[in-house]
Amino acid sequence: MIISTPKGREELEALLKDYRSLFLIGCGACATVCKVGGEDEVFATQEWLEETGREVVGSMILEEACHIMRSARELRRCKAQVEEADALLVLSCGAGVQSISNCVEKRVLTGVNSLFLGNIRRFGEFEEKCSLCGECILNETAGICPVTNCAKGLLNGPCGGLEDGHCEVDEERECTWLKIHERLEKQQRQGVFDRAVEAKDWSKKFRPGQHQLDKNEEKK
């Protein structure tokens, strides 16, 4: 999921200084889990906007703000309210904001900052586990990604700074490569240590990334 954090009220005040009427949009997926764009956050933002003398002409929580076609359909249902607004304030990740921007002519503003693709460790605690590099070696590293979790992104084992099992970049952090070695040892296999890994081909990390499902695969 995409991990996001809310923009501060001062930043939002400066962002919205030229707009008196707004249409609010939240997201029922990642933004709700991160507590930046669910029902509670949309309601709190509406209250704050009204306290600052602005008018909220309407609001909605999209199931997935990043889904362009669904977003367009839902926005058409609120066409009158959207047209009445000076701008749309979206409480979702950057993908959701761009989805909405693709559907309307109005100015679209974001009320959150997107941080990273992350895993949920426990409620309210998230951590980055994948860099979307396009060339996954998790099968050989016992399900631990060195590209993301190693502070230096090393592919062939620990650096010379490993000391007492900890990273030299962050002494509070266990060495990722030590974790990989220990897990592979428990699984009684060599994994990535059985070969020399070539330098990562970063051309496989497409910018911007696009992928279309094969129609035959989609039907399975």
What's the arrangement of secondary structure elements?
Blueprint: E1 2-6, H1 9-15, E2 21-27, H2 30-33, H3 39-51, E3 55-62, H4 68-77, H5 79-84, E4 87-91, H6 94-101, E5 107-110, E6 112-122, E7 125-128, H7 146-149, H8 176-186, H9 215-219
Parallel strand pairs: 2-3, 2-4, 4-5
Antiparallel strand pairs: 1-6, 6-7
How would you characterize the overall build of this protein?
The chain is an alpha/beta fold. It folds into 2 domains: 115 residues, Response regulator (Rossmann fold); 74 residues, no CATH class. It contains 9 helices and 7 strands, in the order E-H-E-H-H-E-H-H-E-H-E-E-E-H-H-H. The protein has a 4-stranded parallel β-sheet, with helices on both faces. Strand 6 and strand 7 form a beta hairpin. The chain is elongated, with a radius of gyration of 22 Å. The two termini are 25 Å apart. 25% of the residues are buried.
H/I helix tally: 9
Rounded mean pLDDT score: 91
Overall form: elongated
Percent strand:
15-25%
Order of helices and strands: EHEHHEHHEHEEEHHH
CATH topology of the largest domain: Rossmann fold
Please identify, by name, the CATH architecture of the largest domain.
3-Layer(aba) Sandwich
Total number of domains: 2
Major beta sheet, strand line-up: 3-2-4-5
What class would the helix/strand composition place it in? alpha/beta
- Helical content, roughly? 25-40%
Strand tally: 7
| Sheet with most strands | 4 strands, parallel
Distance between the termini: 25 Å
CATH class of the largest domain: Alpha Beta
- CATH H level, superfamily name of the largest domain: Response regulator
Low-confidence stretches: none
Rounded radius of gyration (Å): 22 Å
